[in-house]
Amino acid sequence: MKTLIPIPELPNVYVVKVELTADDFNVTGNSLIYDPNPNNASELYDIVDVGFDFQLLGFVTKDEISFDVDPYVECFSRELGHYRNYTIKAQITQTIKQNAVDSFRSALASEEITFVNPFGETKPMSFDEYAMECQTWQTAEDNLAQKLVVLIKK
């Protein structure tokens, strides 16, 4: 069963991690219904019980965001391209993001939702001295998001 993940930095914004192939999304009452694999006709639709009235904003993948994120992130100056960087490290160093998309992705990253393994694209060699490094890399790889469904509480 899929879990609804709140993004505390973005009030009333929630995400659900789904398969990259997921499609045919429908909102019915307080539930999100979708086809996890449209290429497999025998597979049933998945249902996420959200528990409150919501609107489907769109989707996020590694390469694309399907909706305008600007209304949902904090902007210091649109003219200068100064948007809030929501990651903890950025809060200490006072760094900013140059656009709303990067700002939105930093809010996801602040909840450890990433699309790229922070430990690199290739798995470390599995010699004994690298066993912990390999395990850390694999855990990060297993937790990568493929596609997010973004919802906003009404």
SSE map:
Blueprint: E1 4-6, E2 13-18, E3 23-28, E4 31-35, E5 46-49, E6 54-61, E7 75-77, E8 82-84, H1 88-93, E9 96-97, H2 100-109, H3 131-142, E10 147-153
Antiparallel strand pairs: 1-2, 2-10, 3-4, 4-5, 6-10, 7-8, 8-9
Index terms:
154 residues, alpha+beta, four-stranded antiparallel sheet, 3 helices, 18% helix
Descriptive overview:
The protein has 154 residues and is α+β, with helices and mostly antiparallel strands. It has one domain. Helices cover 18% and strands 31% of the residues. The strands form three sheets. A four-stranded antiparallel beta sheet has the order 1-2-10-6, with no helix packed on it. The mean pLDDT is 88.
Number of H/I helices: 3
- Which strands sit side by side, in order, in the main sheet? 1-2-10-6
Report the helical percentage.
Answer: 10-25%
Count of folded domains:
1
Q: What is the 3D shape?
A: flat
Whole-number average pLDDT?
A: 88
Secondary-structure content class: alpha+beta
* Helix-strand topology string: EEEEEEEEHEHHE
Radius of gyration: 18 Å
Rounded to the nearest angstrom, the distance between the terminal CA atoms is 23 Å
Please outline the major beta sheet: 4 strands, antiparallel
- Give unreliable regions as ranges: none
- Tell me how many strands there are: 10
Q: How much beta, percentage-wise?
A: 25-35%
Short description:
This protein has 154 residues and is α+β, with helices and mostly antiparallel strands.
